[in-house]
Amino acid sequence: MLSCSQICIDYIASRIILGIILEPLSWPKPGNVGPSKYYPDLKLEDFIASALILYPRLRTLILTSSLNKNHNFCYWLKNLVSLVSSVLNKNVILGTLILVIPIAMGVGRHCNEFCRDMRASINKLRSWSQESLVLSFSENANDFLEAIAISKASIPNYEGSTPSISKRQVITVEELIHACSKWDVVCYELSKGFELTTSLAEKIAKLVRRGLSLTRAIAQTYLEALTEIIDTHIVRRHSIVQALRTQLLALLVNKEHESNLLNVLDKELRRRRINPGTLADLIATATVLYLLSESENDITALHW
User: Fold this and answer.
1) Most exposed residue of 114, 150, 246, 251, measured as fewest CB within 10 angstroms of its CB?
2) CA–CA distance, 32 with 232 (Å, rounded to integer)
3) Residue 1 within a domain
4) What is the pLDDT of residues 31-53, one digit of tens each?
């Protein structure tokens, strides 16, 4: 099988990196990092640096996938998380990587088809991503768990699953995703075949067609998602009550369409150090899907 051209691989990798960067650059997104919006240990520069660090290895991932040489999702997750953590001494995009790696692998596997038009429909991208993830289902999930540990993130509680996997030495990717999906939206998204991110990508596309700038469309999609999706990062760091309270406040803000209320919500979340990090991962992934679904000319002509 012939591999993709270097130009096409560069194009795919650059769109993925751009999607990761555009998420924190889009504003307003209450509680999240953005332009002039940061936490003491979490800044916009962390996200941009993380994305740029990933570019060379992301290209390699796409190339090896185009040659059908590697379907190992866990290997690449640990590899990329280790790279970012070794340079920045932290990892701020673990959830995004968990979702984006299957997309990169899927587009790589279908690289020649993608490169005919330098784009693919959002639904086709979803299908390719599902396919690449399923190929990794039988893998040992140890590298997945190690990647979470390296990033110093909290591990979703998978105890109580049936059959219980918490005491077993060998856990497959499929078993881990299925068990953690009960407690974590990112794993839920993998178990449902990119259902949420596909819907969010379609919302971004719809808003852009209506005339919104891309960054404004991303921010508006985030605000709507904040009212619809319980952020499990907030649940783990704070409580389910706080996650539901955040959702209710977002509903009130969206209903009133008042910019002042947006600022009030943002200040309230920052005061309590409540960061809807799971939604940020979903929006970054949705932005990646959107960018890969648009032609190069369409992207160039966008009002940012």
Assistant:
1) 251
2) 14
3) no
4) 988 887 777 888 889 999 999 99
